[in-house]
Amino acid sequence: MMFGKIVPYSPIRLIDNKSIHRHSHERGNPERGRVRLRHCWIPAFAGMTVFGPGLWVKAIAITATCCLWAGTIRAEEVVIYTAHDAMFSRPILDDFETQSGINVRVAYDTEASKTTGLVNRLIAEKNNPRADVFWNNEVAQSIVLKERGILEAYHSPTAEGIPKLFKDADGYWTGFAARARVLIYNTDLVAEPPSSIFELTEPQWRGQVGIALPLFGTTATHAAALFAGLGDEKARDWFEALKANDAKILNGNATVKNRVANGEIKIGLTDTDDANAAVQDGKPAKWLFLDQDEGQLGTLVIPNSVCLIKGGPNPEAGKKLIDYLISPEVEERLARSRSMQMPLQKDAEAPEGIPCVKDIRPMEVDFQVVAAQMPDTARYIQEQFAR
Fold first, then answer.
1. Helices and strands, number each (H, E), in the chain
2. What's the CA angle centered on 77, arms 72 and 79, to 5 degrees?
3. pTM of the model as a whole
4. 184 and 280 belong to one structural domain
């Protein structure tokens, strides 16, 4: 029996997922995340004389298998919408992509409309979901999505170390990496800052208080929490007194921080991450938690929340991303960053100088009640501040 000579196997061209993303992105490939394998292990039987039908069958099977491998394969990917600032969220998502090999596609929102803009987008896409995961920078809007049937329940095993207060009992959202509402003040202009939110309406601060429009992001959550905690009458009185005191209604928390740090206004309400950024930049600014004395209101503590989107295109990859985001390692990383977010995981360690949630007098709120309050609060704010 005579056999033809066997040509050595052709090598496979190995391409990692980062290269896949970069290659398709740079060439403007609309089929992002697809790879066409141009090389595979193909035995060549050049000049071979074959005897017997069995060998022909084997040769055909080998050829068919190689043709399948040479076709188009979709790389695993996950789509996330995030209201968290890109400067903080993008490096974390990049690391997940590197560690997992899963391509991450991200949609951000603007500073002025974030959270609300993404929530409206998710609601509009309900019948044809495009996202797998929503990384929200607060909680109330995540509860709105739960009630609108946008979310899928997922009890992440990584969430076991997070207190019950900061996660949904049914698994529709999980909180992590908290911020708090704080007062930022310019140290060149203010010697004795106010210690209570109710002092912001006093005549000495007329025209010198900044606040983001309370229709979006954490400021919208804060407004709804005030209505839920104080009751409609007291909350309306405070907002109307703030307006009468010529408070500056600005585009976002970062804008409040910038106006105060630049001396355009003396004080403002913002979040710990924005306030800390001003301090780290060496601006003449400091910040403090309001209403911390016995019997006072306390400060609103707002964790990030992450949710799995119902009917999303990549649910398993979405679950992996959620597990990663709420891990102690990511919480510690967010705490060390300029965003200075307070860890919630029991095994996470806050760096020195980072306040812990247990050391703050928090505003006592039920996030479910806050979420239910948001539509009425938004209508009131729209009438008072956005006309």
1. 12, 12
2. 135
3. 0.71
4. yes
